[in-house]
Amino acid sequence: MPIDKELDFVGVDEIQMCADHERGHIFTDRLLNMRGSKLTMFMGSNTIKGVVSKLNDSSLDSLTVISSNKEGALKKFIEQQKANYDYIIIDGAPEVTRVMSTSIATSDLVLVPLAPSGLDFWASESTADMVLQRQDISHTKGYFVFNRYPTRKTLLGGDLQDVVDNHEMPAMKTKIYDRVAYPDSLTQGSSALEWHDKKAKDEMVSLVKEIKEALA
User: Is 190 exposed, middle or buried (0-12, 13-18, 19+ CB in 10 A)?
Assistant: First the structure.
């Protein structure tokens, strides 16, 4: 994560990694020193909650810690933030839980990442079914997003495309291909938008544009 930028919002995922013997120093540094001018969120396991609450830091006075197993707290927090931001992103696991159900119910758009694997599709199908059920009572839209898609034509990629084409929930036209730019930029605390791979950058720009169009 870049540390030389002034940002309105700063979010650090997997903050419990502060306790990791190899990479913990990076997460600890961000926990102690990285702040957004409007909002800072540290997301991760409840095991870190006690440590965060004991920090003697005035900038954390308004810090909200949300437990992932309390769907009521999640819904309340989202409702509180709607007036402050144009977009709110919820990152969730592809599993059927009450928290996932709450996340879908409060969302205008749900994106379901899909890697070129039959097992990945089966795991994601339950989430897609929840989105489709929600559409019967609300305006929630849902799309698959192809992720780590083969850069060369493969039988598996073609088969998965056929399966999604016949599914009730559509897929975004933009595919995120299997490029080294994504893990390489991540390890440098950057993103594909700041990396030297133009194709990866164009994919991200195209996906964001398509998402905005779906929300319009």
Answer: middle
Sorted by where each starts, the structural domains of the chain and their CATH numbers stand as 1-65 (3.40.50.300)
Query: 167 — alpha (psi -120 to 50), left (phi > 0) or beta?
Result: beta
Q: Report yes or no: 102 and 134 within 8 Å, Cβ to Cβ.
A: no
136 touches 110 (CB < 8 A):
no
Chain length of the chain = 216
Can you tell me the distance from the alpha carbon of 175 to that of 63, in angstroms, rounded to the nearest whole number?
Answer: 36
Q: What percent of the chain has pLDDT over 90?
A: 19
Residues 74/101, Cβ–Cβ less than 8 Å: no
pLDDT tens digits for 3-59? 677 878 888 888 888 888 887 888 888 888 888 888 787 877 777 777 777 766 655
pLDDT in tens, 76-93: 878 887 887 788 888 876
Please give the Cα distance from 144 to 169 (Å, whole number): 7
